[in-house]
Design brief:
By secondary structure, this protein is of the alpha/beta class. The protein folds into 2 domains: 4-110 and 177-303, P-loop containing nucleotide triphosphate hydrolases (Rossmann fold, 3-Layer(aba) Sandwich); 117-175, Histone, subunit A, CATH 1.10.20. It has helices at residues 14-25, 72-88, 100-108, 117-130, 132-142, 144-149, 155-168, 195-211, 214-223, 238-246, 251-277, 292-303, and strands spanning 4-7, 27-31, 58-59, 92-96, 187-192, 283-286. It is globular and about 55 Å long. The chain starts with a strand and ends with a helix. 42% of the residues are buried.
Length: 304
Amino acid sequence: MRPIAVVGPTGTGKSALALDLAEQLGGEIVNADAMQLYRGMDIGTAKLTVPERRGIVHHQLDVLEVTDNATVAKYQAAAAADIEDIAARGAVPVIVGGSMMYIQALLDEWSFPATDPAVRARWEDRLAEVGVTALHGELARVDPEAAASILNTDGRRIVRALEVVELTGRPFAASAPQIGAPRWDTLIVGLDWDTATLDDRLQRRTDLMFATGLVDEVVALRARGLRDGVTAARALGYAQVLTALDAGGDEAAIAEAQERTFIGTRRYVRRQRSWFRRDHRITWLAGDAEGNAAETIRRWRHVS
């Protein structure tokens, strides 16, 4: 069965549309949000609770501990195996998420350059020397496109991009495939809203996360090693709360963490838009439109 991928910026309603599609088509959902791979990272990633999943099977959720590194290559292999198994059983794989490189690696069979421990170590030393923001600036000077797609708090991915640039002499994205026919002939739909409305949705989403226990979630995860997690500790919301807790965790520190989380999320959305808008294969749907599931199914049946 041909898959459907629901992509787009954070906070646009992708999970709800994916549920509707899977429910109506007899499908199973494959997560493509890097931070939802982590067990216990629930509130800050807007992960659906078990009751909210409507009994639909979800794959690539809660598969890592917060101390594990999430890598695009490992995800690519695991998610592809899930998709092929779902399709072989006659169900429709519904891919959903906004992690840009994860989605492209999955749908375009991205091949990843080899690593060199000595080069990696040198860039890690540079990260420790100048800090993550300055190193992100160095990446922006040699590979603006990679810098635009990587958060300036994500030291691991910044180091990896600089390593690839040094090893290959080409931009990090040059290792990515040219956009062509998507793997498995996947139908790709994107959700978005006008900027002002989406900013309001992001503000309310951030406020709700803090009101419903994000700080307590981070405290619990810190006891399980969150601070040592190279990937998880840099997630939006989690990184800001860890900083607030380090500052004493008083009301003012938490309020600042909440504001920084909103600002960081809004910036990330801008990067997501820039990335996804380059992909001519995506059929864009208005987030507030009625009948998005029906329109997607109509297109899926037409191309099937």
